[in-house]
Amino acid sequence: MHSRIFQISTMEIGQDSYLNEDTLLQGDCSPYDYCSDIDDETRKEDIAYLVNHALPKGMFELISEDTMRYNGGIEQWKEEYVANIRKNAEAITMENMLEWSITYNLQKAIENPLDIAYHFYLDEDGCQSFAEQSFAFMAFVCKLEPGTILYIGGVIDYHF
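RE: above sequence
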């Protein structure tokens, strides 16, 4: 399966610092079989889809082809996140605790609360060799003030 990894920062990202197909660990001991670059038009489409459909509705606004504004709304999202974890935890019983889907749903609620295959590269120094699931992005958003501008650098395809 294929999805995308988005490089996002509170600081402008120069094109020479964009995440690319060689930035992340791939293959053995990695969640990525391989990564590959995408063309500029696909990048624009993917960014628009991320902001307008994949992220919580109304929380972000695309203000140019590679910048978005955080509009607020994290407190409501945090309440929904905790409620979803509780719901999934309560679904686990002694009778079903060994069923893969039951524990997987709880794990997914914790690590990937947006329920998307997108990953996020949030290292502003560009030294990190991995990207993270949606919880890491939302934890990053928890530290932002409404009105904060976020810059989108590299967007790459990954296969898992």
